[in-house]
């Protein structure tokens, strides 16, 4: 069907459908009630009457992203489709995927935080609704099927920390939070990553502050966490990322090492087994995955990027220029448009974000960018939807 909707015809369908959706956007509480009463609630009904479902799905995929929340209120069938992995696939096939940077910002005073959304031009588009539940630290953040998952963490009340197993999901299409199944173990300062459509959580601290070796996997199709083979030793303050069906756990500390661990725990998701490597990165303050490489910033050397290539288990070091920041105080990373963004952890007058392009010609990899969060960046994720 993409061939039938190409060129001018595709634009026409997009405009007509967009206008149709805009007519359904509620402008007041009465309109909202009227829309709800008229909504089609039958999940078995046609997506668009008179059209085969495959054509209707492709049509919905052409609607601009700003109209998704209104689309979700049209019917349960539309809502279900917008929330599905299939919708992201259709958007990709239609060439309509949009890339956005979601940045967790520390508010002034350092006591609270909020998420804000930036586009490829660095323009702030909106703030996310507040995250549900108590304010926590040491939580994990993963992107799965165009959605943001915020997992576990620890909240402190009257000087006493309380570890959590709660998991919340932010739907970037519908601009709303929902609660998912709890993890099997409450934990914080743990490693987490998505590999082949599954989410993995490994190690960290538990309820009583004990270091953990347990690991578990989340299946979005069943909304269930399943315990898996544990690490050989407890590990905390670590991070993880996925590459070609394997989960890499790196950094942090373990009970079997003096100081920070250089060991890398590697989990084969097909064989369900752990193995170990010995050339990891230690005391990592920031990390990001771009293409087939892992980028790290170590506390002991914050003027060099450590770049890991899993294909041959090799590292290389790239100097970070002084342009943009004269302070050797470290950075937080962001990924946008296939480039690595370095946000300074300190406010500096006139500071410009550093940008590293791994595909640029030698000598031209570093630039400066106007993309800049409104405050101190705690972490960031990239969502395509």
Automatic annotation (TrEMBL):
The keyword Nucleotide-binding does not apply. Signal peptide: none annotated. CDD domains: F-box_AtAFR-like. SMART domains: Kelch. It comes from the Eukaryota. The keyword Cell division does not apply. InterPro entries: F-box_dom (IPR001810), Kelch_1 (IPR006652). Residues 49-87 form the F-box domain. Keywords: Kelch repeat, Repeat. Pfam families: F-box (PF00646), Kelch_1 (PF01344). This is F-box domain-containing protein.
């Amino acid at each position: 069907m993409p061939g039938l909707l190409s060129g001018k015809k595709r634009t026409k369908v997009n405009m007509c459908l967009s206008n149709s959706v805009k007519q359904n956007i509620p402008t007041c509480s009465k309109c909202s009630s009227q829309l709800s009463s008229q909504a089609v609630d039958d999940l078995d009904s046609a997506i668009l009457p008179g059209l085969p479902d495959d054509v209707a799905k492709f049509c919905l995929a052409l609607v601009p992203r700003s109209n998704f929340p209104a689309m979700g209120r049209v019917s349960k069938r539309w809502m279900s489709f917008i929330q599905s992995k299939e919708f992201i696939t259709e958007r990709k096939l239609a060439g309509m995927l949009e890339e956005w940077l979601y940045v967790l910002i520390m508010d002034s005073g350092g006591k609270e935080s909020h998420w804000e959304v930036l586009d490829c031009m660095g323009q702030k588009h909106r703030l996310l609704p507040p995250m549900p539940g108590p304010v926590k630290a040491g939580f994990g953040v993963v992107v799965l099927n165009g959605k943001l998952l915020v997992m576990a963490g620890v909240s402190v009340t009257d000087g006493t920390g309380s570890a959590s197993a709660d998991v919340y999901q932010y739907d970037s299409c519908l601009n709303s939070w929902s609660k998912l199944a709890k993890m099997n173990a409450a934990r914080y300062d743990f490693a987490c990553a998505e590999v082949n459509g599954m989410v993995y959580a490994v190690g960290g601290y538990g309820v009583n502050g004990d270091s953990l070796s347990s690991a578990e996997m989340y299946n979005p199709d069943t909304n269930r966490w399943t315990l898996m083979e544990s690490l050989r030793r407890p590990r905390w303050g670590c991070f993880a990322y996925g590459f070609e069906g394997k989960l890499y756990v790196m950094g942090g500390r373990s009970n079997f090492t003096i100081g920070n661990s250089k060991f890398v725990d590697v989990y084969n998701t097909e064989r369900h087994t752990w193995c170990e490597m010995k050339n990891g990165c230690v005391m990592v303050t920031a990390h990001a995955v771009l293409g087939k490489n892992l980028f790290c910033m170590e506390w002991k050397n914050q003027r060099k990027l450590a770049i890991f290539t899993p294909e041959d288990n090799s590292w290389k070091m790239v100097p970070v220029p002084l342009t943009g920041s004269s302070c050797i105080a470290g950075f937080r990373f962001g990924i946008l448009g296939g480039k690595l963004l370095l946000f300074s952890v300190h406010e500096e007058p006139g500071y410009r974000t550093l940008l590293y392009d791994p595909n640029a010609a030698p000598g031209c990899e570093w630039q400066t960018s106007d993309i800049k969060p409104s405050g101190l960046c705690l972490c960031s994720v990239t969502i395509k939807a």
